[in-house]
Design goal:
The protein is mainly alpha-helical. It contains 13 helices and 2 strands, in the order αααααααααββαααα.
């Protein structure tokens, strides 16, 4: 607010009386007058040429006694302008901008996730079945319902026997454990294998159930014994759908649960469908390569079929443990899984 006219200039210096005025010379009063005027925002009076007065003529209006004594104590501060400080603006507007970015990111993430989950999973179910009668005789295929999970000799023994040579030197199907026992004995492997083998998070209980359901589903359609499917899953990935894909020198990619021939990889957004697709690829084959059905039809024996699944062919010698183009312990491992092996040390030469 501007100062009222005459508030500071209401009399001559000669009119000053009292002890307070006695301590000020004209020059000091003028300086004090100037200081007070600046502090209160009072404009400087016009200057004239009077030699006795630095401010101008004798008409200059000095401070009165009352106004002079009123200046004792701290001078009033210049009032702040209304509004926010620069720092407050930065904090408020910066915080608002950050919050807006976070909200946009969350919304975009939700939209992408919903869109991804809503996209259909391309799964065409296969009707491929085993047709070779020998495969039913030797045990790789069965007409029994997969709902019969108590098939087999029970739990078997957690021990490893090294098998080699032709298929007839491997254990007969009458020595295989039941599906129920085989599943329960390996359940902990399903629960821990992903992290153990550095394939990411371990299977959830839901994923494990989805693997179980997929085995039973594809066994029903393909007529491949569910124990044989389970043994190959354990051999290929230890039951981890996230198992890394391998790529052959010819460019064949082998992903997931059964490391199938250019097959399906695991999709977290379509867990059940992708797991079913992986089991189908390994059991019934893909458009690019054979599964267990095709190998059982070709060779009859489940052990020969396992070797064919692993390497794509049987060695001329007929020795299923021959290393040429294959994992030497592969068929021996599968045979031991079918008879109860879980944690016992392998006795296969060269096993890691």
């Amino acid at each position: 607010m501007a100062a009222k006219p005459g508030r500071y200039y209401s009399g001559q210096y000669s009119a000053l009386v009292g002890n307070s005025a006695a301590f000020y010379s004209n020059n000091e009063l003028d300086q004090y007058d100037d200081h007070a005027r600046k502090a209160y925002g009072v404009p400087t009076p016009p200057v004239d040429d009077h030699p006795l007065n630095q401010y101008g003529s004798q008409d200059h209006q000095p401070l009165t006694y009352d106004n002079l004594t009123s200046l004792k104590g701290p001078l009033p501060q210049r009032p702040r302008k209304a509004g926010w400080s620069r720092r407050r603006k930065c904090v408020v507007f910066g915080g608002a901008a950050l919050l807006l970015v976070i909200v946009i990111a969350v919304v975009v993430g939700v939209v992408v996730a919903v869109t991804h989950k809503s996209a259909p999973f391309n799964l065409t179910l296969s009707n491929a079945q085993v047709t070779n009668d020998t495969a039913f005789t030797l045990g790789g295929a069965t007409h029994s319902s997969p709902n019969n999970t108590a098939d087999g000799i029970g739990a078997g023994a957690d021990a490893y026997t090294y098998y080699q040579g032709v298929a007839s030197k491997f254990p007969q199907p009458s020595a295989w454990v039941s599906f129920e026992n085989m599943w329960n004995n390996n359940l902990q492997i399903f629960q821990t294998s992903c992290k153990t083998n550095k394939h990411g998070p371990n299977n959830s209980n839901q994923m494990i159930q989805e693997i179980y359901d997929a085995i039973q589903n594809r066994s029903t359609v393909s007529l491949v014994d569910h124990r044989f499917i389970l043994a190959i899953i354990l051999q290929e990935s230890q039951g981890c759908p996230r198992a890394s894909a391998t790529t052959s020198a010819s460019g064949v990619t082998n992903p997931g649960l059964m490391q199938s021939h250019n097959g399906t990889s695991y999709s977290p957004a379509h867990s059940a469908d992708s797991i079913l697709a992986m089991v189908q690829d390994g059991t019934q084959g893909t458009s690019a390569g054979d599964g267990l059905v095709q190998n059982l039809d070709m060779y009859g024996s489940p052990y020969s079929a396992a070797r064919g699944y692993n390497s794509g062919y049987l060695p001329k010698s007929g020795d299923l443990s021959e290393a040429a183009g294959a994992t030497a312990c592969y068929v021996s491992d599968v045979a031991n899984r079918l008879t109860g092996w879980v944690y016992a040390a392998s006795k296969c030469p060269g096993a890691t």
